[in-house]
TrEMBL record:
Residues 251-270 are annotated as: Disordered. Its cofactor is [4Fe-4S] cluster; [2Fe-2S] cluster. The lineage of its organism: Eukaryota, Metazoa, Ecdysozoa, Arthropoda, Hexapoda. One of its GO terms (cellular component) is membrane. SUPFAM superfamilies: Formate dehydrogenase/DMSO reductase, domains 1-3 (SSF53706). Pfam families: Molybdopterin, NADH_dhqG_C. Residues 3-170 form the Molybdopterin oxidoreductase domain. InterPro entries: Mopterin_OxRdtase, NDUFS1-like_C, Prok_molybdopt-oxidoreductase. This is Molybdopterin oxidoreductase domain-containing protein. Residues 201-251 form the NADH-ubiquinone oxidoreductase 75 kDa subunit mitochondrial-like domain. GO terms for molecular function: iron-sulfur cluster binding; oxidoreductase activity, acting on NAD(P)H.
């Protein structure tokens, strides 16, 4: 209704209109209807929305690693694969998932840090490195590639993540063809040359693909009318590092009690200690 009314007309008349769709829309029951409606509007006004100098339709990813995963093709390859019941699950830094999606009889390997939700259900834990403990290549939400260096040493038995995968491949008899960071980055560049174009935003190569994804794949979708909701219940516990942080736990406690003084109280929110702090990581 908004796009068909006065608001939509103002957006049509704008020199540089922009629509940003939160990734939470994808999780909504009416996702297909949303994408069809927005896609049809963008296509109708393509002269303003999609030009050589302006991309007026954008999706804001919720997870920090999502843009990079898409760039290397880390997606479900087919519907058949998606419907296959796994016997073996390797959680690569995965802590935001529905436990019901992992079969009870599956053998689970968790590779990550801070021992969060993935580690709690794992049969084997392979301690990896946090972003501060390793050299890495990252793609931010606008598609800009950035590289980092380790700021601190690895704790305990932790290992850099690519080395864990390299060791596992050798153990399984299918050794990956790289032995150092330079070789890893060479392989990344083979997959996507953009991964070596640091601090440069690559232009969209297939604009018409957006039309196919947004409109053609979702034609005829009917909306249920279910209202949109916030996808993040607790801003202070949105990732594994935050959930392990005493500071974030105090902030969460302050939000839960509605009293900012909770930030300075000791752990243990109990009936006889209403100013206490909520349990870490909850």
């Amino acid at each position: 209704k908004a796009l068909a009314g006065p608001f939509g007309k103002k957006l049509q008349a704008a020199k540089r209109p922009m629509i940003i769709v939160g990734s939470g829309v994808t999780d909504h029951a009416d996702a297909k209807a949303f994408y069809e409606t927005v896609g049809a509007f963008v296509e109708k006004n393509a002269a303003n929305f999609t030009t050589s100098e302006w991309d007026g339709y954008n999706v804001l990813q919720r997870e920090a690693s999502r843009a990079g995963a898409f760039e290397v093709g880390f997606t479900t390859p087919s519907t058949e694969v998606a419907q296959t019941k796994p016997k073996f699950v390797w959680l690569l830094g995965a802590d935001e998932f529905n436990e019901a999606d992992i079969p009870q009889d599956a053998f689970v390997v968790y590779q990550g840090h801070h021992g969060d939700r993935g580690a709690q259900i794992a049969d084997v834990i392979l301690p990896g490195a946090a972003y501060t403990e390793k050299a890495g290549t990252y793609i931010n939400t606008e598609g800009r590639v950035q590289t980092t260096r380790a700021a601190t040493s690895l704790p305990g038995a932790s290992r850099t993540d690519w080395k864990i995968l390299r060791a596992a491949s050798e153990f399984l008899g299918v050794s990956l063809p790289y032995d150092d960071l330079a070789a890893v980055r060479d392989r990344m560049m083979e997959i996507s040359p953009a991964l070596a174009a640091y601090d440069i935003v690559e232009p969209v190569a297939l604009r018409q693909l957006s039309k196919v994804q947004l409109v053609d794949q979702n034609k005829g979708s009917k909306a249920t009318g279910e209202p949109l909701r916030k996808v993040i219940d607790n801003f202070y516990f949105t990732d594994v590092i935050s959930r392990s942080s005493p500071t974030m736990a105090r902030c969460s406690a302050s939000k839960a009690t509605g009293d900012p003084r909770t930030n300075f109280m000791a752990p243990g929110m109990e009936e006889d200690k209403p100013m206490g702090q909520v349990a870490y990581g909850v």
